[in-house]
Design goal:
The protein is an alpha+beta fold and 136 residues long. The protein has a single domain, classed as 6-pyruvoyl tetrahydropterin synthase/QueD (Tetrahydropterin Synthase, Chain A). Helix content is 34%, strand content 29%. It has 4 helices and 5 strands, in the order βαβαβααββ. It starts with a strand and ends with a strand.
C-alpha cells in the first residue's frame, strides 16, 4: 500500500470547558486550559491518504489538489480562530484534540473520496509534547 502524507499548520485558540460542570470541576479536570480567556496553540495536522496509482499521472493523488482541499476545508476554517466560538463544525463540542481530529476526518472524507483516495491516518499536534492520532 502506498501512503501519501501532507502536513498543514494553523494557529487557533480554545478553552477546554464543559458547560454542564461547575467552575471547580472544570478546573479540576482541565486545569489552566479551562481559564475563561482561553489559550492558543500552533497546531500541525498530518494527513495520510492511500489509493491506487493513477496510470496516466503516476500518482496516488496530486499533492496540489490535496493541498487545496486541506486549505479550503481545514486551514481557512481554523487558522486564527477561536475554535469554540467561530468554528461551526466544533459547536457543541469540547475542543479537545480528540474531538477536533474526529470532526476533521468526517469533513475530509467526501472531498478526498472525490479525488479517489481515503484517509488512513490523521495526526493532530497541539504542541511538540501533545498529539493525537486517528487511524482509519
Amino acid at each position: 500500500m502506498l501512503i501519501v502524507t501532507r502536513t498543514i499548520h494553523f494557529c487557533a485558540a480554545h478553552r477546554l470547558y464543559n458547560d454542564s460542570w461547575s467552575e471547580s470541576k472544570n478546573r479540576d479536570v482541565f486545569g489552566k486550559c479551562s481559564n475563561e480567556g482561553g489559550h492558543g496553540h500552533n497546531y500541525t495536522i498530518k494527513i495520510s491518504v492511500t489509493g491506487p496509482i493513477n496510470k496516466q499521472s503516476g500518482m496516488v493523488v496530486n499533492v496540489t489538489s490535496l493541498r487545496d482541499i486541506l486549505k479550503r476545508e481545514i486551514f481557512d476554517k481554523l487558522d486564527h480562530r477561536d475554535l469554540d466560538k467561530e468554528v461551526e463544525f466544533l459547536k457543541g463540542q469540547i475542543s479537545t484534540m480528540e474531538n477536533i481530529i474526529v470532526k476533521i476526518s468526517k469533513i475530509l472524507e467526501e472531498p478526498l473520496n472525490k479525488l479517489g483516495v481515503k484517509i488512513v491516518k490523521l495526526e493532530l499536534n497541539e504542541s511538540d509534547k501533545n498529539s493525537v492520532t486517528l487511524e482509519l
